[in-house]
Amino acid sequence: MKVFENIKRRLVVCLAVAVSVTFLLPGNAFDGKAVLTSSAANPTGLPVGGKLKAPDLPEVKGIEAGELKGVSKNITVVPAVETGTYYNYLTSFEKSLYKGMYVAADSQNRYESANYPFPEVSAEIICSQGYHFYDGTENPNSLITGEAENHAIEALCYDHMNKIEYYMCAPHIAYTMSGNTYSYYVLMQPINITSENIDSYDSAIQNKVNEYKSAIQSARLIDDEYDAITILNVYDWYMDKVSYDRALESAGNAGYYDVAHTAYGSLCEGEAVCDGYSQGYALILKSLELKADCLVVTGNAITSDGSGGHAWNMVKLDGFWYEEDTTWGDGITGTNHIFFNCTTAQYASGIDGDYHIRQTPYTGELLPKAVGTHYTVEYLRSGIASGNVQHDTKIAVEGVSIDDISTIEGESVTLNPYVFPSNAGNKNVFYEIDDPSIATVSNGVLTAKSAGETILTVKTEEAEYWDTCIVSVGEGTDTTEGMNYSQNADGSVTLTGVGSASVSNLKIPNTVFIDGVEHPVTSIGASAFKSNSKIKKITGGANLTKISSSAFKNCKKLKTIDLHSARITSIGSNAFNGCVKVTSLKINGNKLTSIGKNAFKNVGQKARITVYIKSKVKYEKLVNKIKSKGAKTQTFKFKKKKS
Fold first, then answer.
1. What residues make up the domain containing 593?
2. Does 20 have pLDDT greater than 70?
Protein backbone atom coordinates (compact mmCIF):
# COMPACT_ATOMS: atom_id res chain seq x y z
CA MET A 1 0.00 0.00 0.00
CA LYS A 2 1.34 3.41 -0.96
CA VAL A 3 1.14 5.92 1.88
CA PHE A 4 0.84 9.67 1.19
CA GLU A 5 0.95 12.72 3.41
CA ASN A 6 1.18 12.06 7.14
CA ILE A 7 -0.67 14.68 9.06
CA LYS A 8 0.50 15.03 12.63
CA ARG A 9 -1.14 17.76 14.61
CA ARG A 10 -2.53 18.49 17.99
CA LEU A 11 -6.12 19.39 18.45
CA VAL A 12 -7.19 22.99 18.87
CA VAL A 13 -9.69 22.80 21.68
CA CYS A 14 -12.37 25.43 21.57
CA LEU A 15 -14.41 26.05 24.64
CA ALA A 16 -17.39 26.63 22.41
CA VAL A 17 -16.90 23.46 20.38
CA ALA A 18 -14.82 20.43 21.30
CA VAL A 19 -13.08 19.43 18.11
CA SER A 20 -12.30 15.73 17.85
CA VAL A 21 -10.91 14.72 14.50
CA THR A 22 -8.65 12.01 13.33
CA PHE A 23 -6.10 14.50 12.05
CA LEU A 24 -3.91 16.01 14.76
CA LEU A 25 -4.27 19.75 14.79
CA PRO A 26 -2.10 22.68 15.86
CA GLY A 27 -1.94 23.39 19.55
CA ASN A 28 -1.00 27.04 19.43
CA ALA A 29 -4.43 28.43 20.34
CA PHE A 30 -6.14 28.65 23.71
CA ASP A 31 -7.37 25.21 24.56
CA GLY A 32 -9.53 23.86 27.31
CA LYS A 33 -12.80 24.34 29.08
CA ALA A 34 -14.12 27.09 31.27
CA VAL A 35 -12.97 26.81 34.87
CA LEU A 36 -14.85 28.74 37.54
CA THR A 37 -12.39 30.74 39.58
CA SER A 38 -12.58 33.61 42.00
CA SER A 39 -10.20 36.05 43.59
CA ALA A 40 -10.35 39.37 45.32
CA ALA A 41 -9.66 41.06 42.00
CA ASN A 42 -12.46 39.12 40.35
CA PRO A 43 -15.26 38.95 42.93
CA THR A 44 -17.89 37.56 40.59
CA GLY A 45 -15.74 34.50 39.88
CA LEU A 46 -16.05 34.80 36.11
CA PRO A 47 -15.41 31.51 34.29
CA VAL A 48 -12.52 31.57 31.83
CA GLY A 49 -11.04 28.89 29.59
CA GLY A 50 -8.49 26.73 31.36
CA LYS A 51 -5.51 25.04 29.70
CA LEU A 52 -7.19 21.63 29.49
CA LYS A 53 -5.35 19.65 26.84
CA ALA A 54 -7.35 17.55 24.43
CA PRO A 55 -6.61 13.83 24.31
CA ASP A 56 -3.88 12.92 21.87
CA LEU A 57 -5.22 11.89 18.49
CA PRO A 58 -3.97 9.06 16.29
CA GLU A 59 -1.97 9.54 13.15
CA VAL A 60 -4.03 9.14 10.00
CA LYS A 61 -2.63 8.67 6.52
CA GLY A 62 -3.99 9.05 3.05
CA ILE A 63 -4.09 6.05 0.72
CA GLU A 64 -4.14 5.34 -2.98
CA ALA A 65 -7.57 5.58 -4.54
CA GLY A 66 -7.03 2.17 -6.08
CA GLU A 67 -6.92 0.58 -2.63
CA LEU A 68 -10.69 1.18 -2.31
CA LYS A 69 -11.79 -0.53 -5.49
CA GLY A 70 -14.60 -2.98 -4.87
CA VAL A 71 -15.26 -1.72 -1.35
CA SER A 72 -18.89 -0.82 -0.77
CA LYS A 73 -19.67 2.46 0.95
CA ASN A 74 -21.60 2.44 4.22
CA ILE A 75 -23.04 5.91 3.71
CA THR A 76 -25.82 5.60 1.19
CA VAL A 77 -28.34 7.84 2.95
CA VAL A 78 -27.65 11.46 1.97
CA PRO A 79 -30.16 13.78 3.63
CA ALA A 80 -30.73 17.29 2.31
CA VAL A 81 -28.28 19.51 4.18
CA GLU A 82 -29.89 22.29 6.20
CA THR A 83 -27.62 25.31 6.60
CA GLY A 84 -27.97 28.55 8.54
CA THR A 85 -26.38 31.89 9.33
CA TYR A 86 -22.95 30.57 10.29
CA TYR A 87 -22.59 28.52 7.09
CA ASN A 88 -22.61 31.73 5.06
CA TYR A 89 -19.41 32.95 6.74
CA LEU A 90 -17.32 29.87 5.83
CA THR A 91 -14.79 29.34 3.07
CA SER A 92 -15.56 26.97 0.22
CA PHE A 93 -13.71 24.06 1.84
CA GLU A 94 -15.21 24.77 5.27
CA LYS A 95 -18.68 24.67 3.70
CA SER A 96 -17.89 21.28 2.14
CA LEU A 97 -16.65 19.92 5.49
CA TYR A 98 -19.76 21.31 7.22
CA LYS A 99 -22.00 19.49 4.74
CA GLY A 100 -19.94 16.30 5.00
CA MET A 101 -20.21 16.20 8.79
CA TYR A 102 -23.94 16.92 8.58
CA VAL A 103 -24.47 13.89 6.34
CA ALA A 104 -22.11 11.64 8.31
CA ALA A 105 -23.84 12.54 11.60
CA ASP A 106 -27.23 11.42 10.30
CA SER A 107 -28.77 8.69 12.45
CA GLN A 108 -28.31 6.10 9.67
CA ASN A 109 -24.70 7.04 8.98
CA ARG A 110 -22.94 7.40 12.35
CA TYR A 111 -19.89 5.25 13.00
CA GLU A 112 -20.14 3.20 16.18
CA SER A 113 -17.03 2.03 18.01
CA ALA A 114 -16.39 1.09 21.61
CA ASN A 115 -12.83 2.41 21.49
CA TYR A 116 -12.26 5.74 23.23
CA PRO A 117 -10.63 8.15 23.72
CA PHE A 118 -9.97 9.02 20.10
CA PRO A 119 -9.95 5.48 18.73
CA GLU A 120 -7.60 4.42 16.00
CA VAL A 121 -9.65 4.45 12.82
CA SER A 122 -7.70 3.51 9.73
CA ALA A 123 -7.73 5.54 6.54
CA GLU A 124 -9.19 2.49 4.80
CA ILE A 125 -12.20 2.46 7.14
CA ILE A 126 -12.75 6.20 6.91
CA CYS A 127 -12.47 6.27 3.12
CA SER A 128 -14.55 3.15 2.56
CA GLN A 129 -17.26 3.80 5.15
CA GLY A 130 -17.20 7.59 5.38
CA TYR A 131 -18.91 10.26 3.33
CA HIS A 132 -17.04 11.62 0.31
CA PHE A 133 -17.36 15.37 0.81
CA TYR A 134 -14.63 17.13 -1.19
CA ASP A 135 -12.21 16.82 -4.11
CA GLY A 136 -9.30 19.17 -4.67
CA THR A 137 -5.68 19.51 -5.67
CA GLU A 138 -4.58 21.33 -2.51
CA ASN A 139 -2.09 19.58 -0.26
CA PRO A 140 -3.88 18.28 2.88
CA ASN A 141 -1.37 20.03 5.15
CA SER A 142 -2.53 23.42 3.84
CA LEU A 143 -6.21 22.55 3.49
CA ILE A 144 -6.96 20.61 6.70
CA THR A 145 -6.11 23.22 9.33
CA GLY A 146 -7.26 23.63 12.90
CA GLU A 147 -8.91 26.92 11.99
CA ALA A 148 -10.85 25.39 9.08
CA GLU A 149 -12.12 22.51 11.20
CA ASN A 150 -13.02 24.71 14.16
CA HIS A 151 -14.92 27.08 11.90
CA ALA A 152 -16.82 24.25 10.21
CA ILE A 153 -17.72 22.45 13.45
CA GLU A 154 -18.75 25.59 15.34
CA ALA A 155 -20.85 26.70 12.39
CA LEU A 156 -22.53 23.28 12.20
CA CYS A 157 -23.26 23.23 15.93
CA TYR A 158 -24.59 26.80 16.13
CA ASP A 159 -26.72 26.50 13.03
CA HIS A 160 -28.35 23.47 14.74
CA MET A 161 -28.33 24.32 18.44
CA ASN A 162 -31.34 22.07 19.04
CA LYS A 163 -29.34 18.96 18.07
CA ILE A 164 -26.46 17.55 20.10
CA GLU A 165 -25.05 15.12 17.52
CA TYR A 166 -22.82 17.70 15.83
CA TYR A 167 -21.04 18.34 19.13
CA MET A 168 -21.19 14.84 20.62
CA CYS A 169 -19.82 13.07 17.53
CA ALA A 170 -16.10 13.15 16.79
CA PRO A 171 -15.21 13.62 13.11
CA HIS A 172 -12.57 11.37 11.54
CA ILE A 173 -11.14 12.61 8.25
CA ALA A 174 -8.93 10.84 5.72
CA TYR A 175 -8.19 11.14 2.02
CA THR A 176 -7.29 9.21 -1.07
CA MET A 177 -5.06 10.42 -3.87
CA SER A 178 -5.34 9.80 -7.59
CA GLY A 179 -2.89 11.72 -9.74
CA ASN A 180 -2.86 15.23 -8.31
CA THR A 181 -6.40 15.05 -6.91
CA TYR A 182 -7.20 14.41 -3.26
CA SER A 183 -10.60 13.01 -2.29
CA TYR A 184 -11.69 13.61 1.30
CA TYR A 185 -13.96 11.45 3.47
CA VAL A 186 -15.42 11.94 6.94
CA LEU A 187 -16.94 9.68 9.60
CA MET A 188 -18.85 10.93 12.66
CA GLN A 189 -18.51 8.81 15.79
CA PRO A 190 -20.71 9.33 18.89
CA ILE A 191 -18.60 9.81 22.04
CA ASN A 192 -19.92 9.28 25.59
CA ILE A 193 -23.37 8.71 24.13
CA THR A 194 -24.96 6.01 22.02
CA SER A 195 -26.37 6.75 18.63
CA GLU A 196 -29.76 5.47 19.78
CA ASN A 197 -29.90 8.05 22.59
CA ILE A 198 -29.14 11.09 20.46
CA ASP A 199 -32.66 11.46 19.08
CA SER A 200 -34.13 11.35 22.59
CA TYR A 201 -31.73 14.10 23.71
CA ASP A 202 -32.75 16.22 20.71
CA SER A 203 -36.42 15.71 21.52
CA ALA A 204 -35.82 16.63 25.15
CA ILE A 205 -34.23 19.93 24.09
CA GLN A 206 -37.22 20.84 21.94
CA ASN A 207 -39.67 19.85 24.65
CA LYS A 208 -37.84 22.02 27.18
CA VAL A 209 -37.77 24.97 24.78
CA ASN A 210 -41.52 24.64 24.34
CA GLU A 211 -42.00 24.39 28.12
CA TYR A 212 -39.89 27.49 28.75
CA LYS A 213 -41.68 29.40 26.02
CA SER A 214 -45.02 28.69 27.70
CA ALA A 215 -43.61 29.65 31.10
CA ILE A 216 -42.29 32.97 29.77
CA GLN A 217 -45.62 33.72 28.14
CA SER A 218 -47.51 32.83 31.33
CA ALA A 219 -45.22 35.05 33.38
CA ARG A 220 -46.05 37.92 31.02
CA LEU A 221 -42.39 38.60 30.27
CA ILE A 222 -43.03 39.40 26.61
CA ASP A 223 -43.45 43.04 25.66
CA ASP A 224 -45.55 43.36 22.49
CA GLU A 225 -43.80 46.52 21.34
CA TYR A 226 -40.18 46.32 22.44
CA ASP A 227 -38.09 43.18 21.95
CA ALA A 228 -35.37 44.81 24.06
CA ILE A 229 -37.65 44.73 27.12
CA THR A 230 -38.56 41.10 26.44
CA ILE A 231 -34.89 40.15 26.13
CA LEU A 232 -33.99 41.89 29.39
CA ASN A 233 -36.83 40.01 31.11
CA VAL A 234 -35.76 36.66 29.64
CA TYR A 235 -32.11 37.34 30.51
CA ASP A 236 -33.01 37.73 34.19
CA TRP A 237 -35.48 34.82 34.13
CA TYR A 238 -32.94 32.49 32.49
CA MET A 239 -30.36 33.03 35.25
CA ASP A 240 -32.62 31.22 37.69
CA LYS A 241 -32.86 28.17 35.43
CA VAL A 242 -29.20 27.30 34.93
CA SER A 243 -26.00 27.17 36.94
CA TYR A 244 -22.36 26.76 36.02
CA ASP A 245 -21.15 23.14 35.88
CA ARG A 246 -18.22 23.12 38.26
CA ALA A 247 -17.71 19.36 37.92
CA LEU A 248 -15.95 19.95 34.62
CA GLU A 249 -13.22 21.81 36.47
CA SER A 250 -11.60 18.53 37.47
CA ALA A 251 -13.04 16.18 34.86
CA GLY A 252 -10.03 16.47 32.56
CA ASN A 253 -10.31 14.83 29.17
CA ALA A 254 -13.20 12.69 30.38
CA GLY A 255 -15.33 15.83 30.38
CA TYR A 256 -14.39 16.88 26.89
CA TYR A 257 -17.48 15.36 25.24
CA ASP A 258 -20.11 16.43 27.73
CA VAL A 259 -23.67 17.67 27.19
CA ALA A 260 -22.83 20.64 29.45
CA HIS A 261 -21.40 22.16 26.27
CA THR A 262 -24.80 21.93 24.57
CA ALA A 263 -28.30 23.32 25.00
CA TYR A 264 -29.24 19.99 26.63
CA GLY A 265 -27.01 20.87 29.57
CA SER A 266 -28.45 24.33 30.15
CA LEU A 267 -32.10 23.55 29.40
CA CYS A 268 -32.63 19.93 30.44
CA GLU A 269 -30.06 19.42 33.19
CA GLY A 270 -29.86 22.99 34.44
CA GLU A 271 -26.06 22.86 34.43
CA ALA A 272 -23.77 24.01 31.64
CA VAL A 273 -20.56 25.75 30.74
CA CYS A 274 -20.48 28.89 28.61
CA ASP A 275 -21.32 27.37 25.21
CA GLY A 276 -24.23 25.49 26.79
CA TYR A 277 -25.42 28.70 28.46
CA SER A 278 -25.26 30.61 25.19
CA GLN A 279 -27.04 28.00 23.07
CA GLY A 280 -29.86 27.52 25.56
CA TYR A 281 -30.41 31.29 25.76
CA ALA A 282 -30.41 31.63 21.96
CA LEU A 283 -32.92 28.80 21.52
CA ILE A 284 -35.30 30.35 24.04
CA LEU A 285 -35.17 33.76 22.32
CA LYS A 286 -35.64 32.20 18.88
CA SER A 287 -38.67 30.26 20.12
CA LEU A 288 -40.42 33.50 21.09
CA GLU A 289 -40.52 34.52 17.42
CA LEU A 290 -39.25 38.03 18.12
CA LYS A 291 -38.10 40.41 15.43
CA ALA A 292 -34.74 40.29 17.20
CA ASP A 293 -32.17 37.70 16.17
CA CYS A 294 -29.71 35.95 18.50
CA LEU A 295 -26.34 34.33 17.73
CA VAL A 296 -23.60 32.58 19.69
CA VAL A 297 -20.22 34.32 19.60
CA THR A 298 -16.94 32.55 20.40
CA GLY A 299 -13.50 33.89 21.17
CA ASN A 300 -11.00 34.26 23.99
CA ALA A 301 -11.80 35.54 27.47
CA ILE A 302 -9.26 37.31 29.66
CA THR A 303 -9.70 38.04 33.37
CA SER A 304 -7.29 38.71 36.19
CA ASP A 305 -7.31 34.95 36.86
CA GLY A 306 -6.32 33.82 33.39
CA SER A 307 -7.53 33.41 29.84
CA GLY A 308 -9.06 30.83 27.56
CA GLY A 309 -11.83 30.01 25.14
CA HIS A 310 -15.26 31.45 25.85
CA ALA A 311 -18.75 31.71 24.33
CA TRP A 312 -21.37 34.41 24.68
CA ASN A 313 -24.28 35.88 22.66
CA MET A 314 -25.23 38.83 20.56
CA VAL A 315 -28.76 40.03 19.84
CA LYS A 316 -30.05 42.21 17.02
CA LEU A 317 -32.42 45.02 18.02
CA ASP A 318 -33.80 47.55 15.52
CA GLY A 319 -31.11 46.43 13.11
CA PHE A 320 -28.14 46.87 15.45
CA TRP A 321 -26.22 44.09 17.19
CA TYR A 322 -25.53 44.06 20.96
CA GLU A 323 -23.22 41.75 22.93
CA GLU A 324 -24.58 39.78 25.92
CA ASP A 325 -22.91 37.23 28.21
CA THR A 326 -25.30 35.06 30.22
CA THR A 327 -22.46 33.02 31.76
CA TRP A 328 -20.75 36.08 33.20
CA GLY A 329 -24.12 37.64 33.96
CA ASP A 330 -24.94 34.68 36.20
CA GLY A 331 -22.52 35.75 38.94
CA ILE A 332 -21.89 34.08 42.25
CA THR A 333 -23.54 36.96 44.09
CA GLY A 334 -26.55 37.03 41.78
CA THR A 335 -27.51 38.21 38.32
CA ASN A 336 -25.55 41.20 37.05
CA HIS A 337 -25.98 43.33 33.94
CA ILE A 338 -22.39 44.51 33.49
CA PHE A 339 -22.11 42.52 30.26
CA PHE A 340 -25.65 43.15 28.97
CA ASN A 341 -26.18 44.97 25.65
CA CYS A 342 -22.64 46.19 25.11
CA THR A 343 -20.71 46.88 21.92
CA THR A 344 -17.94 44.68 20.53
CA ALA A 345 -15.50 47.54 21.15
CA GLN A 346 -16.49 47.68 24.83
CA TYR A 347 -16.04 43.91 25.16
CA ALA A 348 -12.63 44.03 23.47
CA SER A 349 -11.34 46.99 25.46
CA GLY A 350 -12.44 45.39 28.72
CA ILE A 351 -15.25 45.93 31.21
CA ASP A 352 -14.01 46.15 34.79
CA GLY A 353 -10.79 44.53 33.60
CA ASP A 354 -12.47 41.53 31.94
CA TYR A 355 -12.16 41.08 28.18
CA HIS A 356 -13.93 39.27 25.32
CA ILE A 357 -11.63 38.95 22.30
CA ARG A 358 -12.84 37.66 18.95
CA GLN A 359 -9.89 35.83 17.42
CA THR A 360 -8.82 32.80 15.45
CA PRO A 361 -9.65 29.91 15.43
CA TYR A 362 -13.12 30.82 16.69
CA THR A 363 -16.07 31.82 14.51
CA GLY A 364 -16.60 35.03 16.47
CA GLU A 365 -13.99 36.68 14.25
CA LEU A 366 -16.24 36.06 11.22
CA LEU A 367 -19.43 37.64 12.59
CA PRO A 368 -20.54 41.28 12.26
CA LYS A 369 -19.54 43.60 15.07
CA ALA A 370 -21.99 44.84 17.66
CA VAL A 371 -22.33 48.63 17.48
CA GLY A 372 -25.73 49.18 19.12
CA THR A 373 -25.72 51.82 21.86
CA HIS A 374 -29.41 52.68 22.27
CA TYR A 375 -30.78 49.81 24.36
CA THR A 376 -28.36 49.85 27.28
CA VAL A 377 -29.54 48.35 30.55
CA GLU A 378 -29.56 51.83 32.11
CA TYR A 379 -31.78 53.19 29.33
CA LEU A 380 -34.18 50.25 29.56
CA ARG A 381 -34.49 50.42 33.35
CA SER A 382 -35.12 54.16 33.24
CA GLY A 383 -37.52 53.86 30.31
CA ILE A 384 -39.49 51.02 31.86
CA ALA A 385 -39.80 52.94 35.13
CA SER A 386 -41.01 56.09 33.37
CA GLY A 387 -42.96 54.35 30.62
CA ASN A 388 -40.85 56.11 28.02
CA VAL A 389 -38.92 53.50 26.01
CA GLN A 390 -38.46 54.50 22.36
CA HIS A 391 -37.24 52.63 19.29
CA ASP A 392 -33.82 53.34 17.83
CA THR A 393 -34.59 55.54 14.83
CA LYS A 394 -31.21 55.18 13.14
CA ILE A 395 -31.13 52.91 10.06
CA ALA A 396 -28.61 50.14 10.58
CA VAL A 397 -26.32 48.71 7.93
CA GLU A 398 -27.23 45.09 7.19
CA GLY A 399 -24.52 44.10 4.73
CA VAL A 400 -22.39 44.95 1.72
CA SER A 401 -21.63 43.36 -1.63
CA ILE A 402 -19.17 44.04 -4.43
CA ASP A 403 -18.84 42.54 -7.91
CA ASP A 404 -15.69 40.94 -9.31
CA ILE A 405 -13.47 43.42 -11.17
CA SER A 406 -11.78 42.88 -14.51
CA THR A 407 -9.37 45.47 -15.90
CA ILE A 408 -5.99 45.80 -17.60
CA GLU A 409 -2.62 47.18 -16.54
CA GLY A 410 -2.56 50.92 -15.99
CA GLU A 411 -6.32 51.39 -15.82
CA SER A 412 -8.19 52.83 -12.83
CA VAL A 413 -11.60 51.66 -11.68
CA THR A 414 -13.93 53.56 -9.34
CA LEU A 415 -15.20 51.06 -6.81
CA ASN A 416 -18.94 50.88 -6.32
CA PRO A 417 -19.87 48.49 -3.49
CA TYR A 418 -23.52 48.21 -2.52
CA VAL A 419 -24.22 48.90 1.15
CA PHE A 420 -27.69 47.80 2.11
CA PRO A 421 -30.33 48.78 2.88
CA SER A 422 -30.20 51.74 0.53
CA ASN A 423 -31.26 54.15 3.28
CA ALA A 424 -28.67 52.99 5.83
CA GLY A 425 -27.33 55.85 7.88
CA ASN A 426 -23.61 55.06 7.62
CA LYS A 427 -22.45 53.86 4.20
CA ASN A 428 -18.76 54.42 4.77
CA VAL A 429 -16.55 51.50 3.76
CA PHE A 430 -12.87 50.66 3.75
CA TYR A 431 -10.85 48.26 1.60
CA GLU A 432 -8.13 45.66 2.02
CA ILE A 433 -6.28 44.10 -0.92
CA ASP A 434 -4.24 40.92 -0.67
CA ASP A 435 -1.52 41.72 -3.21
CA PRO A 436 -0.70 45.42 -3.70
CA SER A 437 1.79 44.54 -6.45
CA ILE A 438 -1.22 43.67 -8.65
CA ALA A 439 -3.57 46.50 -7.63
CA THR A 440 -3.85 49.25 -5.06
CA VAL A 441 -6.80 51.15 -3.63
CA SER A 442 -6.90 54.80 -2.62
CA ASN A 443 -9.95 56.96 -1.94
CA GLY A 444 -12.27 54.36 -3.45
CA VAL A 445 -10.33 54.02 -6.71
CA LEU A 446 -8.56 50.80 -7.68
CA THR A 447 -5.45 51.13 -9.83
CA ALA A 448 -4.20 48.10 -11.77
CA LYS A 449 -0.43 47.70 -11.40
CA SER A 450 0.50 44.39 -13.05
CA ALA A 451 -1.11 41.36 -14.64
CA GLY A 452 -2.47 38.79 -12.21
CA GLU A 453 -5.28 38.18 -9.74
CA THR A 454 -5.83 39.19 -6.16
CA ILE A 455 -8.64 39.43 -3.62
CA LEU A 456 -10.24 42.73 -2.62
CA THR A 457 -12.18 42.87 0.66
CA VAL A 458 -14.68 45.64 1.37
CA LYS A 459 -15.88 46.23 4.94
CA THR A 460 -18.50 48.57 6.26
CA GLU A 461 -17.35 51.06 8.85
CA GLU A 462 -20.44 50.19 10.86
CA ALA A 463 -20.46 46.60 12.20
CA GLU A 464 -17.72 45.54 9.74
CA TYR A 465 -19.94 43.52 7.43
CA TRP A 466 -17.74 42.34 4.60
CA ASP A 467 -17.65 40.89 1.11
CA THR A 468 -14.84 39.91 -1.23
CA CYS A 469 -14.31 40.02 -4.96
CA ILE A 470 -11.70 38.80 -7.39
CA VAL A 471 -9.63 41.50 -9.07
CA SER A 472 -8.34 40.29 -12.44
CA VAL A 473 -5.73 42.44 -14.16
CA GLY A 474 -4.97 41.59 -17.77
CA GLU A 475 -2.16 42.62 -20.05
CA GLY A 476 -1.91 43.37 -23.78
CA THR A 477 -4.52 44.61 -26.20
CA ASP A 478 -8.25 44.77 -25.68
CA THR A 479 -9.47 45.12 -29.25
CA THR A 480 -11.71 43.15 -31.59
CA GLU A 481 -10.24 44.63 -34.76
CA GLY A 482 -9.20 41.92 -37.18
CA MET A 483 -11.77 39.43 -35.92
CA ASN A 484 -13.73 37.24 -38.32
CA TYR A 485 -17.52 37.60 -38.50
CA SER A 486 -20.35 36.03 -40.45
CA GLN A 487 -23.71 37.66 -41.08
CA ASN A 488 -26.85 35.72 -40.23
CA ALA A 489 -30.13 35.74 -42.19
CA ASP A 490 -31.81 37.94 -39.59
CA GLY A 491 -29.11 40.58 -39.87
CA SER A 492 -27.32 39.62 -36.68
CA VAL A 493 -23.62 38.72 -36.64
CA THR A 494 -21.70 35.69 -35.35
CA LEU A 495 -18.10 36.10 -34.21
CA THR A 496 -16.31 33.17 -35.88
CA GLY A 497 -12.65 33.53 -35.02
CA VAL A 498 -9.58 35.51 -34.17
CA GLY A 499 -8.52 36.29 -37.74
CA SER A 500 -5.40 38.41 -37.87
CA ALA A 501 -5.79 39.92 -34.40
CA SER A 502 -3.65 38.99 -31.41
CA VAL A 503 -5.90 39.55 -28.42
CA SER A 504 -5.44 38.75 -24.75
CA ASN A 505 -8.38 40.82 -23.49
CA LEU A 506 -11.32 39.96 -25.76
CA LYS A 507 -14.17 42.47 -25.55
CA ILE A 508 -17.10 41.25 -27.62
CA PRO A 509 -18.77 44.39 -29.04
CA ASN A 510 -22.48 45.09 -28.90
CA THR A 511 -22.50 45.81 -32.63
CA VAL A 512 -20.22 45.89 -35.68
CA PHE A 513 -20.44 47.78 -38.96
CA ILE A 514 -20.49 45.84 -42.22
CA ASP A 515 -20.53 47.95 -45.39
CA GLY A 516 -21.58 50.91 -43.29
CA VAL A 517 -24.53 49.12 -41.68
CA GLU A 518 -24.62 48.42 -37.93
CA HIS A 519 -25.38 44.80 -36.90
CA PRO A 520 -25.79 43.30 -33.41
CA VAL A 521 -23.24 40.65 -32.36
CA THR A 522 -25.42 37.88 -30.96
CA SER A 523 -23.33 34.71 -30.98
CA ILE A 524 -19.90 33.09 -30.84
CA GLY A 525 -19.45 30.46 -33.53
CA ALA A 526 -18.54 26.81 -33.02
CA SER A 527 -14.82 26.38 -32.21
CA ALA A 528 -14.32 30.11 -32.85
CA PHE A 529 -11.49 30.46 -30.31
CA LYS A 530 -10.73 26.80 -29.66
CA SER A 531 -7.21 26.25 -28.28
CA ASN A 532 -6.41 29.95 -28.49
CA SER A 533 -3.13 30.55 -26.66
CA LYS A 534 -3.46 34.32 -26.17
CA ILE A 535 -6.84 35.08 -24.64
CA LYS A 536 -6.80 35.71 -20.89
CA LYS A 537 -10.07 37.57 -20.47
CA ILE A 538 -13.49 37.62 -22.18
CA THR A 539 -16.12 40.32 -21.73
CA GLY A 540 -19.49 39.63 -23.37
CA GLY A 541 -21.47 42.30 -25.20
CA ALA A 542 -25.03 43.25 -24.26
CA ASN A 543 -26.50 41.60 -27.39
CA LEU A 544 -24.72 38.27 -26.97
CA THR A 545 -27.20 35.39 -26.58
CA LYS A 546 -25.41 32.25 -27.78
CA ILE A 547 -22.03 30.60 -27.21
CA SER A 548 -21.69 27.68 -29.59
CA SER A 549 -20.05 24.31 -28.98
CA SER A 550 -16.31 24.30 -28.26
CA ALA A 551 -16.21 28.09 -28.72
CA PHE A 552 -13.45 28.51 -26.11
CA LYS A 553 -12.43 24.90 -25.57
CA ASN A 554 -8.88 24.44 -24.27
CA CYS A 555 -8.11 28.15 -23.98
CA LYS A 556 -5.32 27.37 -21.55
CA LYS A 557 -4.54 30.97 -20.54
CA LEU A 558 -8.12 32.13 -20.09
CA LYS A 559 -8.64 33.34 -16.53
CA THR A 560 -11.64 35.69 -16.50
CA ILE A 561 -15.02 35.26 -18.20
CA ASP A 562 -17.46 38.15 -17.73
CA LEU A 563 -20.87 37.54 -19.29
CA HIS A 564 -23.01 39.27 -16.66
CA SER A 565 -24.05 42.08 -19.04
CA ALA A 566 -24.93 39.65 -21.84
CA ARG A 567 -28.30 37.93 -22.23
CA ILE A 568 -27.11 34.38 -22.80
CA THR A 569 -29.82 31.86 -23.67
CA SER A 570 -27.64 28.89 -24.64
CA ILE A 571 -24.14 27.57 -24.08
CA GLY A 572 -23.04 24.74 -26.35
CA SER A 573 -21.33 21.49 -25.48
CA ASN A 574 -17.66 21.79 -24.46
CA ALA A 575 -17.90 25.58 -24.76
CA PHE A 576 -15.38 26.15 -21.95
CA ASN A 577 -14.07 22.60 -21.54
CA GLY A 578 -10.39 22.58 -20.65
CA CYS A 579 -10.13 26.23 -19.58
CA VAL A 580 -8.13 25.10 -16.58
CA LYS A 581 -6.89 28.51 -15.38
CA VAL A 582 -10.26 30.20 -15.06
CA THR A 583 -10.67 31.78 -11.64
CA SER A 584 -13.69 34.02 -12.23
CA LEU A 585 -16.82 33.41 -14.30
CA LYS A 586 -19.75 35.84 -14.19
CA ILE A 587 -22.93 35.00 -16.06
CA ASN A 588 -26.42 36.45 -16.44
CA GLY A 589 -28.70 33.50 -15.78
CA ASN A 590 -32.10 35.10 -16.30
CA LYS A 591 -32.53 33.80 -19.85
CA LEU A 592 -30.11 30.86 -19.82
CA THR A 593 -32.13 27.71 -20.54
CA SER A 594 -29.79 25.45 -22.51
CA ILE A 595 -26.34 24.20 -21.47
CA GLY A 596 -24.61 21.51 -23.52
CA LYS A 597 -22.74 18.46 -22.32
CA ASN A 598 -19.39 19.13 -20.62
CA ALA A 599 -19.76 22.88 -21.19
CA PHE A 600 -17.85 23.57 -17.95
CA LYS A 601 -15.77 20.41 -17.66
CA ASN A 602 -12.20 20.97 -16.48
CA VAL A 603 -12.80 24.65 -15.80
CA GLY A 604 -10.48 25.94 -13.06
CA GLN A 605 -11.21 24.00 -9.85
CA LYS A 606 -10.91 27.10 -7.66
CA ALA A 607 -13.02 29.30 -9.94
CA ARG A 608 -15.77 31.43 -8.45
CA ILE A 609 -18.90 31.36 -10.58
CA THR A 610 -21.14 34.35 -9.91
CA VAL A 611 -24.69 33.94 -11.22
CA TYR A 612 -26.69 37.12 -11.82
CA ILE A 613 -30.35 36.17 -11.66
CA LYS A 614 -33.67 37.48 -10.35
CA SER A 615 -34.39 34.99 -7.56
CA LYS A 616 -32.69 32.51 -5.23
CA VAL A 617 -35.03 29.72 -6.41
CA LYS A 618 -33.95 30.14 -10.03
CA TYR A 619 -30.36 30.50 -8.89
CA GLU A 620 -30.39 27.10 -7.14
CA LYS A 621 -31.89 25.39 -10.20
CA LEU A 622 -29.35 26.95 -12.56
CA VAL A 623 -26.42 26.11 -10.27
CA ASN A 624 -27.48 22.45 -10.28
CA LYS A 625 -27.61 22.51 -14.07
CA ILE A 626 -24.16 24.13 -14.34
CA LYS A 627 -22.75 21.54 -11.93
CA SER A 628 -24.22 18.73 -14.04
CA LYS A 629 -22.30 20.11 -17.02
CA GLY A 630 -18.93 19.78 -15.31
CA ALA A 631 -18.57 22.54 -12.68
CA LYS A 632 -18.54 20.28 -9.61
CA THR A 633 -15.81 21.78 -7.40
CA GLN A 634 -16.16 25.49 -8.05
CA THR A 635 -17.59 28.07 -5.65
CA PHE A 636 -20.92 29.68 -6.57
CA LYS A 637 -22.21 33.12 -5.59
CA PHE A 638 -25.67 34.65 -5.99
CA LYS A 639 -26.14 38.20 -7.28
CA LYS A 640 -29.62 39.59 -7.75
CA LYS A 641 -30.30 40.95 -11.24
CA LYS A 642 -33.79 41.59 -12.59
CA SER A 643 -33.05 41.12 -16.30
1. 484-640
2. no
